[in-house]
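Hi there, hope your week has been kind to you so far. It would help a lot if you went through both lines with me. No rush at all, and the record is pasted right below:

***
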Amino acid sequence: MSIERPDTLQDAPLGRVSAYPEHYDAGLLYPIARAANRAPLGIRDDSLPFEGEDEWHAFELSWLDTKGKPVVAVARFRLPASSPNLIESKSWKLYLNSFNQTRFASRDEVIESLERDLSAAAGAPVVTELFGVDDERLTPRRLPGECIDDLDIEIHDYTPSPELLAVGDEVVEETLHSHLLKSNCPVTGQPDWGSVMIRYRGPCLDREGVLRYLVSYRQHQDFHEHCVEHIFTDLMARARPERLLVLARYVRRGGLDISPWRGTPGERPPEPLRLARQ
């Protein structure tokens, strides 16, 4: 199964009034090429400067068993950053809702359908896990490292300003995080709230500068995935760390949360990890 790759948001369901589907329909998925948003950052799909994934949780997934009885589950999807496409979030939600009145013989059949359709839209394999709503593996946790949100600083920049990033001479290995990340949807302008973790080894980052820089995304319009790539590329350019991992956990919206991470080769995020706001 192949899905055409549109290069614009002109026909995307995001920001439009949409009828919710009553029957399973893989054609609802709307892939968006990553390349256009990566080009201004100097990122090429054929030579990515990072490894990573976009991890999604879906909290509004349900289908019917063979007797017509509803089944509910929470899904976790992992979409590789190397895929040529991301998938627009509202189309993903509409697609998942198309399962609501569809009968499946087993959970395995549901997973098979999800992985087939999402992989076709992304252009790369998407890994799917299903959890019961009370599964302990979904218990919220805290981000590792030190929170920098209590720093007493003045802030004047609310669009991405990499010049705010500064480093010292000492080489350190540390993990910092902030819950003050906010960006805006590039189509609807709605706020996207998130937490971000930065784990690195390299010249010591000035923490006040890091916090000012993260807050500078407050009026920026972009997809979650590209915001994380923007942060990663700015940190690499300004600090030149030996190792770097940038992970964002965005607040759930429309039954979905998105948690992209990007890292230098060999860097992996702590797993599993969900926050209370998700």
